Amino acid sequence: MAPCKYSSSRKLVSALMVALFCHFELSVGFNPKHLNLSAIGTHWSTAGATWYGSPDGAGSDGGSCGYGKLVSQTPFSSLVTGISPSLYNSGKECGACYQVKCTKNPSCSGKPVRVVITDLCPGGLCLSSSAHFDLSGTSFGAMALPGQEDKLRDAGVLEIGYARVACDYSGKTIAFHVDQGSSSNYFATVIEFEDGDGDLGAVELKEGSSQTWRAMQQSWGAVWKLDAGSQLHPPLSIRLTSQYSGQTLVAKDVIPDGWKPGATYRSLVNYNI
Protein backbone atom coordinates (compact mmCIF):
# COMPACT_ATOMS: atom_id res chain seq x y z
CA MET A 1 0.00 0.00 0.00
CA ALA A 2 1.40 3.36 -0.99
CA PRO A 3 2.10 5.75 1.93
CA CYS A 4 -0.36 8.58 2.41
CA LYS A 5 1.27 11.93 1.64
CA TYR A 6 0.46 15.38 0.35
CA SER A 7 2.33 18.36 -1.00
CA SER A 8 2.82 21.38 1.23
CA SER A 9 1.39 23.47 -1.58
CA ARG A 10 -2.02 21.88 -1.27
CA LYS A 11 -4.76 23.70 0.47
CA LEU A 12 -5.24 23.02 4.15
CA VAL A 13 -8.62 21.42 3.61
CA SER A 14 -7.13 18.88 1.20
CA ALA A 15 -4.39 18.05 3.67
CA LEU A 16 -6.90 17.50 6.42
CA MET A 17 -8.99 15.21 4.22
CA VAL A 18 -5.98 13.11 3.28
CA ALA A 19 -4.82 12.89 6.88
CA LEU A 20 -8.26 11.85 8.03
CA PHE A 21 -8.48 9.13 5.37
CA CYS A 22 -5.00 7.82 6.23
CA HIS A 23 -5.87 7.64 9.91
CA PHE A 24 -9.13 5.84 9.12
CA GLU A 25 -7.42 3.41 6.75
CA LEU A 26 -4.64 2.52 9.19
CA SER A 27 -6.81 2.30 12.27
CA VAL A 28 -9.80 0.27 11.02
CA GLY A 29 -8.55 -1.48 7.88
CA PHE A 30 -10.94 0.24 5.49
CA ASN A 31 -11.86 -1.91 2.51
CA PRO A 32 -14.40 -0.48 0.03
CA LYS A 33 -15.18 -3.98 -1.25
CA HIS A 34 -16.53 -4.92 2.18
CA LEU A 35 -18.84 -1.98 2.80
CA ASN A 36 -22.07 -2.80 4.63
CA LEU A 37 -25.01 -1.39 2.69
CA SER A 38 -26.93 -0.88 5.90
CA ALA A 39 -24.21 1.37 7.32
CA ILE A 40 -23.63 3.76 4.41
CA GLY A 41 -25.71 6.61 3.07
CA THR A 42 -28.07 6.45 0.09
CA HIS A 43 -26.38 7.50 -3.15
CA TRP A 44 -28.74 8.41 -5.99
CA SER A 45 -28.05 7.96 -9.72
CA THR A 46 -30.20 8.54 -12.82
CA ALA A 47 -31.85 5.89 -14.97
CA GLY A 48 -34.64 5.43 -17.48
CA ALA A 49 -37.84 3.66 -16.43
CA THR A 50 -40.69 1.88 -18.19
CA TRP A 51 -43.22 -0.71 -17.01
CA TYR A 52 -44.56 -4.00 -18.31
CA GLY A 53 -47.28 -6.53 -17.63
CA SER A 54 -50.65 -5.56 -16.18
CA PRO A 55 -51.12 -2.14 -14.55
CA ASP A 56 -51.48 -3.63 -11.07
CA GLY A 57 -49.39 -6.74 -11.64
CA ALA A 58 -45.90 -8.10 -11.00
CA GLY A 59 -44.54 -7.66 -14.52
CA SER A 60 -44.15 -11.30 -15.51
CA ASP A 61 -44.87 -14.58 -13.75
CA GLY A 62 -41.56 -15.07 -12.03
CA GLY A 63 -39.04 -13.49 -14.38
CA SER A 64 -35.53 -14.62 -15.25
CA CYS A 65 -34.36 -14.85 -11.62
CA GLY A 66 -36.46 -17.95 -10.96
CA TYR A 67 -38.69 -16.70 -8.14
CA GLY A 68 -41.86 -17.94 -9.85
CA LYS A 69 -45.17 -16.97 -8.30
CA LEU A 70 -43.39 -15.48 -5.27
CA VAL A 71 -43.11 -12.16 -7.12
CA SER A 72 -46.79 -11.41 -6.51
CA GLN A 73 -46.79 -12.67 -2.92
CA THR A 74 -45.61 -11.20 0.39
CA PRO A 75 -42.96 -9.89 0.93
CA PHE A 76 -42.33 -9.03 -2.77
CA SER A 77 -45.98 -8.00 -3.18
CA SER A 78 -45.45 -7.18 -6.89
CA LEU A 79 -43.01 -4.36 -6.00
CA VAL A 80 -40.44 -5.84 -8.36
CA THR A 81 -38.51 -4.85 -11.45
CA GLY A 82 -36.67 -6.08 -14.49
CA ILE A 83 -33.33 -4.38 -14.95
CA SER A 84 -30.84 -3.64 -17.69
CA PRO A 85 -27.90 -6.04 -18.25
CA SER A 86 -25.46 -3.48 -16.80
CA LEU A 87 -27.10 -3.83 -13.37
CA TYR A 88 -28.37 -7.42 -13.67
CA ASN A 89 -24.76 -8.65 -13.69
CA SER A 90 -25.56 -12.07 -15.21
CA GLY A 91 -28.09 -12.74 -12.47
CA LYS A 92 -25.80 -12.03 -9.53
CA GLU A 93 -28.03 -9.08 -8.55
CA CYS A 94 -31.22 -11.15 -8.42
CA GLY A 95 -32.91 -10.31 -5.13
CA ALA A 96 -31.04 -7.01 -4.74
CA CYS A 97 -33.09 -4.08 -3.49
CA TYR A 98 -33.23 -0.56 -4.89
CA GLN A 99 -35.13 2.58 -4.10
CA VAL A 100 -36.62 4.36 -7.12
CA LYS A 101 -38.35 7.73 -7.33
CA CYS A 102 -39.55 10.14 -9.99
CA THR A 103 -39.79 13.93 -9.76
CA LYS A 104 -39.98 15.23 -13.35
CA ASN A 105 -43.60 14.42 -14.16
CA PRO A 106 -46.60 16.22 -12.59
CA SER A 107 -47.95 12.85 -11.44
CA CYS A 108 -44.74 11.93 -9.58
CA SER A 109 -44.87 11.88 -5.79
CA GLY A 110 -41.10 12.22 -5.38
CA LYS A 111 -41.21 9.59 -2.63
CA PRO A 112 -38.82 6.60 -2.83
CA VAL A 113 -40.27 3.14 -3.47
CA ARG A 114 -38.30 0.00 -2.61
CA VAL A 115 -38.26 -2.62 -5.38
CA VAL A 116 -36.56 -6.02 -5.79
CA ILE A 117 -34.75 -7.27 -8.90
CA THR A 118 -36.59 -10.35 -10.16
CA ASP A 119 -36.13 -10.12 -13.93
CA LEU A 120 -33.82 -9.10 -16.78
CA CYS A 121 -34.75 -6.53 -19.42
CA PRO A 122 -32.38 -7.64 -22.19
CA GLY A 123 -32.96 -5.26 -25.08
CA GLY A 124 -34.79 -2.28 -26.55
CA LEU A 125 -35.03 0.71 -24.25
CA CYS A 126 -33.12 -1.21 -21.58
CA LEU A 127 -29.98 -0.83 -23.70
CA SER A 128 -30.52 2.84 -24.51
CA SER A 129 -28.94 4.18 -21.31
CA SER A 130 -26.35 3.11 -18.77
CA ALA A 131 -29.10 1.94 -16.39
CA HIS A 132 -32.77 1.15 -17.00
CA PHE A 133 -35.57 -0.20 -14.82
CA ASP A 134 -38.47 -2.05 -16.47
CA LEU A 135 -40.76 -1.92 -13.47
CA SER A 136 -43.87 -3.94 -12.76
CA GLY A 137 -47.09 -1.99 -13.21
CA THR A 138 -47.46 -1.97 -9.42
CA SER A 139 -43.96 -0.55 -8.86
CA PHE A 140 -44.37 2.12 -11.53
CA GLY A 141 -47.71 3.24 -10.11
CA ALA A 142 -46.27 3.32 -6.59
CA MET A 143 -44.10 6.31 -7.61
CA ALA A 144 -47.23 8.38 -8.35
CA LEU A 145 -49.24 10.80 -6.31
CA PRO A 146 -52.38 9.19 -4.82
CA GLY A 147 -54.97 8.78 -7.56
CA GLN A 148 -52.42 9.60 -10.31
CA GLU A 149 -51.15 6.04 -10.91
CA ASP A 150 -52.77 5.59 -14.33
CA LYS A 151 -51.62 9.02 -15.52
CA LEU A 152 -48.06 8.20 -14.56
CA ARG A 153 -48.21 4.82 -16.32
CA ASP A 154 -49.42 6.66 -19.44
CA ALA A 155 -46.37 8.96 -19.40
CA GLY A 156 -44.10 6.60 -21.36
CA VAL A 157 -40.40 6.56 -20.53
CA LEU A 158 -39.54 8.37 -17.31
CA GLU A 159 -36.27 9.63 -15.93
CA ILE A 160 -35.97 8.35 -12.37
CA GLY A 161 -33.51 8.37 -9.52
CA TYR A 162 -32.32 5.04 -8.18
CA ALA A 163 -30.19 3.94 -5.24
CA ARG A 164 -28.92 0.55 -4.07
CA VAL A 165 -30.24 -0.16 -0.56
CA ALA A 166 -30.31 -3.00 1.94
CA CYS A 167 -33.22 -5.44 1.71
CA ASP A 168 -35.68 -5.83 4.56
CA TYR A 169 -37.98 -8.85 4.42
CA SER A 170 -39.66 -8.15 7.78
CA GLY A 171 -38.29 -10.95 9.91
CA LYS A 172 -38.25 -13.69 7.28
CA THR A 173 -35.36 -16.13 7.29
CA ILE A 174 -33.55 -17.31 4.16
CA ALA A 175 -35.39 -20.05 2.30
CA PHE A 176 -34.27 -22.64 -0.24
CA HIS A 177 -36.69 -23.72 -2.99
CA VAL A 178 -35.35 -26.96 -4.46
CA ASP A 179 -35.33 -26.98 -8.26
CA GLN A 180 -37.59 -29.55 -9.92
CA GLY A 181 -34.61 -31.00 -11.81
CA SER A 182 -32.75 -31.95 -8.62
CA SER A 183 -31.92 -35.59 -7.91
CA SER A 184 -29.86 -37.73 -5.55
CA ASN A 185 -26.61 -36.63 -7.26
CA TYR A 186 -27.58 -33.19 -8.58
CA PHE A 187 -28.84 -30.42 -6.32
CA ALA A 188 -30.09 -26.99 -7.38
CA THR A 189 -31.95 -24.40 -5.35
CA VAL A 190 -33.44 -20.92 -5.61
CA ILE A 191 -32.18 -18.88 -2.63
CA GLU A 192 -34.84 -16.51 -1.33
CA PHE A 193 -35.19 -13.54 1.05
CA GLU A 194 -31.60 -12.48 1.81
CA ASP A 195 -31.87 -9.46 4.11
CA GLY A 196 -29.43 -6.56 4.36
CA ASP A 197 -26.49 -6.61 1.95
CA GLY A 198 -26.96 -10.32 1.34
CA ASP A 199 -26.07 -10.37 -2.36
CA LEU A 200 -24.37 -13.72 -2.68
CA GLY A 201 -20.75 -13.99 -3.70
CA ALA A 202 -20.37 -17.69 -2.88
CA VAL A 203 -22.59 -20.65 -1.95
CA GLU A 204 -21.29 -23.97 -0.61
CA LEU A 205 -22.90 -27.28 0.36
CA LYS A 206 -21.91 -29.85 2.97
CA GLU A 207 -23.33 -33.34 3.37
CA GLY A 208 -24.32 -34.54 6.82
CA SER A 209 -21.68 -37.28 6.74
CA SER A 210 -18.86 -34.96 5.66
CA GLN A 211 -16.72 -32.12 7.01
CA THR A 212 -16.00 -30.80 3.49
CA TRP A 213 -17.70 -27.76 2.00
CA ARG A 214 -18.24 -28.09 -1.77
CA ALA A 215 -18.58 -24.96 -3.92
CA MET A 216 -21.87 -24.53 -5.75
CA GLN A 217 -22.11 -22.68 -9.05
CA GLN A 218 -24.60 -20.02 -10.04
CA SER A 219 -26.78 -21.77 -12.61
CA TRP A 220 -29.01 -18.87 -13.68
CA GLY A 221 -30.70 -16.01 -11.87
CA ALA A 222 -31.04 -16.84 -8.18
CA VAL A 223 -30.49 -20.58 -8.78
CA TRP A 224 -27.30 -22.22 -7.47
CA LYS A 225 -26.34 -25.82 -8.32
CA LEU A 226 -23.98 -28.65 -7.42
CA ASP A 227 -23.43 -31.52 -9.86
CA ALA A 228 -22.07 -33.93 -7.24
CA GLY A 229 -21.26 -36.82 -9.57
CA SER A 230 -22.32 -39.28 -6.87
CA GLN A 231 -25.15 -39.69 -4.41
CA LEU A 232 -25.55 -36.89 -1.88
CA HIS A 233 -26.11 -37.84 1.75
CA PRO A 234 -28.52 -35.53 3.60
CA PRO A 235 -29.13 -33.64 5.73
CA LEU A 236 -27.45 -30.94 3.67
CA SER A 237 -26.07 -27.71 5.13
CA ILE A 238 -25.61 -24.62 2.96
CA ARG A 239 -23.06 -21.86 3.60
CA LEU A 240 -23.67 -18.40 2.11
CA THR A 241 -21.13 -15.60 1.70
CA SER A 242 -22.20 -12.02 0.97
CA GLN A 243 -20.33 -10.39 -1.90
CA TYR A 244 -20.59 -6.95 -0.23
CA SER A 245 -19.68 -7.47 3.42
CA GLY A 246 -18.07 -10.90 3.20
CA GLN A 247 -20.34 -12.04 6.03
CA THR A 248 -20.85 -15.81 6.10
CA LEU A 249 -23.99 -17.63 7.26
CA VAL A 250 -24.54 -21.37 7.69
CA ALA A 251 -28.00 -22.87 7.25
CA LYS A 252 -27.24 -26.06 9.18
CA ASP A 253 -29.03 -29.22 8.02
CA VAL A 254 -31.56 -27.04 6.19
CA ILE A 255 -32.22 -29.68 3.51
CA PRO A 256 -33.51 -32.71 5.47
CA ASP A 257 -33.32 -36.42 4.83
CA GLY A 258 -36.13 -37.28 2.41
CA TRP A 259 -36.11 -33.86 0.72
CA LYS A 260 -38.24 -33.44 -2.40
CA PRO A 261 -37.72 -31.49 -5.64
CA GLY A 262 -40.12 -28.54 -5.74
CA ALA A 263 -40.26 -28.22 -1.95
CA THR A 264 -39.16 -25.12 -0.01
CA TYR A 265 -37.10 -25.40 3.17
CA ARG A 266 -36.71 -22.45 5.53
CA SER A 267 -33.52 -21.84 7.50
CA LEU A 268 -33.06 -20.19 10.89
CA VAL A 269 -30.63 -17.53 9.65
CA ASN A 270 -30.52 -14.27 7.72
CA TYR A 271 -28.20 -11.31 7.21
CA ASN A 272 -28.37 -8.36 9.56
CA ILE A 273 -30.05 -5.15 8.51
Automatic annotation (TrEMBL):
Domain Expansin-like EG45: 62-172
UniProt-listed SMART domains: DPBB_1
Gene Ontology cellular component annotations, sorted alphabetically: extracellular region
SUPFAM superfamilies: Barwin-like endoglucanases, PHL pollen allergen
InterPro entries in alphabetical order: Expan_Lol_pI, Expansin/allergen_DPBB_dom, Expansin_CBD, Expansin_CBD_sf, LolPI, RlpA-like_DPBB, RlpA-like_sf
UniProt-listed PANTHER family: EXPANSIN-B15-LIKE (PTHR31692:SF49), EXPANSIN-B3 (PTHR31692)
Protein name in the entry: Major pollen allergen Lol pI
The organism of origin for this protein: Trema orientale (Charcoal tree)
